[in-house]
Design brief:
Elements lengths: L2 H4 L7 H7 L2 H13 L5 H17 L4 E5 L11 E3 L1 E3 L5 E3 L3 H5 E2 L19 E5 L6 E3 L2 E10 L8 H21 L8 E15 H6 L1 H6 L24 H16 L4 E6 L5 E6 L2 E2 H21 L2 E4 L12 E10 L16 H16 L1 H7 L21 E2 L2 H11 L35 E3 L4 E7 L5 H22 L7 H16 L11 H9 L8 H4 L6 H9 L5 H54 L7 H32 L4 H27 L12 H6 L2
Parallel strand pairs: 1-8, 15-16
Antiparallel strand pairs: 1-2, 3-4, 5-6, 6-8, 7-8, 9-11, 9-12, 9-13, 9-14, 10-11, 14-17, 16-17
The chain binds adenosine-5'-diphosphate (ADP) and magnesium ion (MG).
The site of magnesium ion (MG) has 3 residues, from loops.
């Protein structure tokens, strides 16, 4: 099979639909997909028949409604197509009703109190805007998941709502600016995914990796990432084979995997697809993470998607490249050759700036998790302060609007690379700034604060809704302006918006302490941890935003807030328990083993006929005994504190306690354990150390 033949071969995509569906049915389905119109049951029935036939031809025996509950993972329940017809015979059946609606028992999914146990029923509803696909002999139908009374219990429903809100507001303002052909606007996303690969056998021996996805103790080897030799380095054959297989599996599922390379940390890699409509990109990213794990198994690896698997080297993030495109194919964030004259671009650009400034707290919230707390604000990932990088040219354009000065268009500069055999190319008008959480990169924004394991849904819900709100405020200001005065009114609006919101623009180095001080002066938020930022979800300004655009109801917000708090507490709770067990069952016994052999050695030495000292043994015995005792006491404290946390009724109070007390207990333990690990022989540890895991693949 050639690659173009392989690509999308397991997807019920437009090409297959056109081939398999009667013309009128195809047209009706297309209308539903493109214009969000209601789908009639007879259309659904016809689509179901075609889908089933195609699925069976491709080896499927089952179908599943695939959904994204608040666990952050995907969920599925498989039903076979078989239907007994008597005489011990069956036929393969799949109806329109089964396609459009499912009724999984929802009682065991997180609902944050939304759903009482007596209302266990949940519904899944087909999302025709994301194509169905076949995986492991099952037809997967992407669906939204809600409760019996219609409240969203998943990550897809609010995302679809936010895309609609943005489309509505963007179309309104475009019409007002005289762009009358545009009927809808979609947001687009390209998520760059980072991950680690470790050997499966190593992984299985590490209790901390198995239960928490990250190492809770572990001393750094002599070498980390300081030589900068891994980033974009040659792929090791085993890793290259993995990436090759991964690409093929993703391509079959119609996921346009494009770029792959080694990342900064040893054993760390990245994969980036070509961008797609946000909804599809979110589904594809969930699938990508799953396929990454599955293919890893086949290659004797485990793929780690945790934000901070190893202390002392970089963790993993996910860059959310985001833009807006009209149904006529125009990228609204493309500045064109002369951005200063491109009013449409400037309106959308300033709307994004306003949105980010007004709702920086929600953007920070949308990337908050126990795992990501290890990265944000450390010198490897953008700071917890949300700011925008625009680059010199756009900043100059905005300056000229603010000050009513003429903007002398800068010519694109031909890049001189000093070797005439190399082709000359034009320098990008924006340079790269890796330290900014939200950077303009030519014709899109790159939101860089996301953690590697996060569903990209949440951050895009916030972005879409905040920008929709900014556009809607612009519309209110401009809607009654007579046509002759419109251009002055737009100019004034741009100017006012820049003056009011330019504090969020920062082109400098976001990793410095000076920026933290400067940001505070500018009045920007700096939420350092997840429990710090979660309460902003239920603040009036933010509830109003979501409710007014129909993204969440008030009770949906409160339920999600509860889920986030609980999730944070549970994560640290499991980490604390794992650490206690690892100390008691593995690490302390390892110290004891070494102590025992030192004592035996000293004893034997003393019995030798010649007088030699046991100086070193005694020193080591003393040092290790002190650490051993410390670890025991510290673990006792951790266990006591954990019991206190468990008894707390208020979930915010509990989350704060986990953050300030339990995490601190764990860090104190780690400092001692890592010092001890550097002294004891490798082979008394019942699990592989950092050196083995990071450098021996
Ligand atoms: P880099 O971040 O290294 O500059 P690229 O510019 O190639 O890399 O793009 C990174 C990601 O951004 C890719 O997934 C790409 O498809 C995506 N991207 C490009 N254009 C858009 C767009 N208009 N909307 C959303 N994502 C985009
Ligand atoms: Mg990038």
């Amino acid at each position: 099979m050639t690659i173009p033949e392989m690509y999308g071969s397991l997807v019920f995509n437009d090409k297959i639909m056109r081939e398999k569906l009667p013309k009128d049915i195809y047209k009706a389905l297309r209308k539903t997909i493109d214009k969000n119109t209601h789908l009639e049951l007879d259309v659904a029935n016809a689509v179901a028949v075609a889908m089933k036939e195609w699925a069976i031809e491709n080896g499927a025996t089952h179908f599943t409604h695939w959904f994204q509950p608040m666990t952050g993972f995907t969920a599925e329940k498989h039903d076979s197509f078989i239907n007994p017809i008597g005489n011990g015979e069956i036929i393969m059946e799949f109806s329109g009703k089964e396609l459009v609606k499912g009724e999984p028992d929802a009682s065991s999914f997180p609902s944050g109190g939304l759903r009482a146990t007596f209302e266990a029923r949940g519904y899944t509803a087909w999302d025709p805007t994301s194509p169905a696909f076949i995986k492991d002999g099952t037809l997967y139908i992407p669906t939204a998941f809600c409760s019996y009374s219609g409240e969203a219990l998943d990550k897809k429903t609010p995302l679809l709502r936010s895309m609609e809100a943005l489309s509505k507001e963007a179309t309104k303002i475009l019409k007002l600016l005289g762009n009358t052909e545009v009927e809808s606007v979609t947001t687009t996303v390209g998520p760059e995914q980072e991950y680690f690969l470790v050997d499966k056998e190593d992984f299985k021996k590490r209790m901390d990796l198995v239960f928490t996805g990250r190492t809770l103790i572990g001393a750094m080897p002599p070498k980390g990432q300081e030589m900068e030799d891994h980033y974009f380095g040659t792929l090791k054959p085993r890793v290259a084979a993995y990436m090759h297989d991964l690409d093929e599996e993703l391509w079959k599922l119609g996921i346009p995997a494009k770029t792959k390379h080694n990342e900064v940390a040893p054993a760390q890699h990245e994969l980036a697809p070509v961008f797609d409509t946000t909804n599809v990109a979110v589904d594809h990213n969930q699938l990508t993470m799953e396929v990454m794990r599955k293919v890893a198994e086949k290659h004797g690896f485990v793929c780690l998607l945790h934000e901070k698997p190893f202390d002392g080297i970089n963790g993993s993030g996910k860059h959310n490249n985001w833009s807006m495109t009209t149904n006529t194919g125009v990228n609204l964030l493309d500045p064109g050759k002369t951005p200063a004259e491109n009013v449409q671009f400037l309106v959308f650009l300033t709307a994004v700036i306003k949105a980010v400034d007004d709702y920086a707290d929600l953007m920070r919230l949308s990337v908050a998790s126990a795992g990501n707390d290890h990265r944000l604000g450390a010198n490897e990932a953008p700071p917890a302060i949300i700011s925008i990088f625009l680059g010199d040219e756009l900043t100059a354009v905005l300056d000229s609007i603010e000050n009513d000065t003429f903007f002398g268009e800068k010519q694109a500069v031909a890049m001189e690379i000093g070797a005439s055999v190399l082709p000359h190319f034009m320098k990008d008008t924006t340079d790269r700034n890796r330290t900014s959480p939200f950077a303009f990169t030519g014709n899109k924004f790159e939101f860089r604060s996301l953690g590697s394991s996060l569903s990209v849904s949440g951050p895009n819900v916030v972005l879409n809704t905040a920008v929709a709100e900014a556009l809607s405020q612009f519309y209110e200001i401009l809607k009654d302006v007579p046509e002759a005065e419109l251009s002055t009114a737009v100019h004034n609006l741009l100017k006012d918006t820049i003056v009011k919101h330019k504090r969020v623009v920062f082109n400098g180095n976001g990793y410095t302490d000076e920026w933290v001080a400067e940001a505070e002066k500018r009045g920007l938020y700096n939420y350092r941890s997840t429990p710090d930022v979660l309460p902003v979800f239920v603040e009036k300004k933010n509830v109003d935003l979501f409710v007014s655009h129909g993204i969440f109801t008030e009770s949906e917000i409160h339920s999600r807030y509860e889920i986030l708090l609980e999730n944070y507490a549970k994560t640290i709770h499991i980490e604390a328990k794992t650490l206690s067990d690892m100390l008691n069952q593995q690490f302390m016994p390892a110290i004891a083993t070494y102590l025992d052999s030192l004592i035996t050695l000293a004893d034997k030495k003393q019995k030798l006929p010649t007088a030699i000292t046991c100086k070193t043994e005694l020193k080591l015995i003393e040092k290790l005994t002190a650490w051993y005792d410390d670890l025991y006491e510290m673990n006792e404290k951790l266990i006591e504190d954990r019991i206190k946390a468990e008894a707390m009724e208020d979930s915010l109070e509990a989350a704060k306690f986990y953050q300030s007390v339990i995490l601190a207990d764990m860090e104190n333990i780690r400092a001692v354990a890592d010092a001890a690990e550097a002294v004891i022989p490798e082979d008394v540890l019942p699990y592989p150390n950092y050196a083995k895991m990071l450098f021996y693949v």
